[in-house]
Amino acid sequence: MRVLILGTGALGCLYAARLAAQADVVMLGAWAEGVDAIRAAGIRVIDPDGRAWVARVRAEHDPEAAPTADVALILVKSHQTRRAAAWAARRLARDGLAVTLQNGLDNLPALVEAVGAPRGAVGVTYNAATLLGPAAVRHVVSLPTYLGLLPARPCAGPADAAQARLGALAGLLNAAGLAAQVSADVEARLWGKAVVNAAINPLTALWRVANGELLARPERRRLLAGLACEAAATARARGVALPFADPVAYVESVCEATAANRSSMLQDVERGRPTEIDSISGVVAAEARRLGVAAPLTEAVWRLVQAL
Ligand code: PAF
After folding, report:
1. 263: CA distance to ligand 1 center in Å?
2. What does the pLDDT look like over 100-134, one tens digit per residue?
3. What is the extent of the structural domain holding 131?
4. Between 7 and which of 28, 76, 184, 304 could a Cys-Cys bridge form, CB atoms 3.0 to 4.6 Å apart?
5. Around Cβ 49, how many Cβ atoms within 10 Å?
6. CA nearest 230: which of 303, 188, 287?
7. Same-domain status, 174 and 194
């Protein structure tokens, strides 16, 4: 399979390095330092068990230099989705599939606008990774990736090209050591992840602490729980059947599983880069308002992180 990975950040590097042994992988990115470092010496990965290894991967700055792809994985920050989607549209095979694996709730519409609904899909990943520098990534914790089509539609068997591609991609990811499965209700997974991100990411960014530190004090736990409940109530008001019964217990379990990780939003703040707050808390707050759900904490952290 010919795989194009858009984005040379932590998850872009992780997926590219892992998939390189299983597929023809090309990375495409606008961050010159990242692309140049990948070209010069490959991607350096530190696994969750501390093992370090290097993968050689082709990387390009210019979409015209990238070959045609069967699958494009969108792993840029959400404010860069439109450009990445336009690049993917130029390189994707006619029967190819572009999959957003990003945090946030507003990436798929932008992707579908560029590649067309039949070629757009969504992935939700719980892998936690830290960018150590250009082309260097620490895989902090290995957790599953869920893939699916939106709006959910029944699988039409092998004739359904998009479903077939998703199945093949899941197989490839599993072979590459990244656990993945196709989900029949990926909107539930997407909102499940949004509950996690809407609770963990703003607080870690505001307090500059690793995920596990959110559980260290009762005051922090209370705010974490409040944000999780607001996002979960919004999802339920939308009619989404979340993949967990208790949002607070679920978010706390993710904090424990990713305790050592500095969230992606904290990493953005530390690097002085734009955050994904509008695509996470901003969308949850807007949906809550639309549906008449009270979400004062979500509104507050959205504005506080924007002001950073
Ligand atoms: O954005 C992140 O950092 C991740 O989605 C997660 C799961 C919160 C782990 O840090």
Report:
1. 5
2. 999 999 999 999 999 999 999 999 999 999 999 99
3. 2-184
4. 76
5. 7
6. 287
7. no
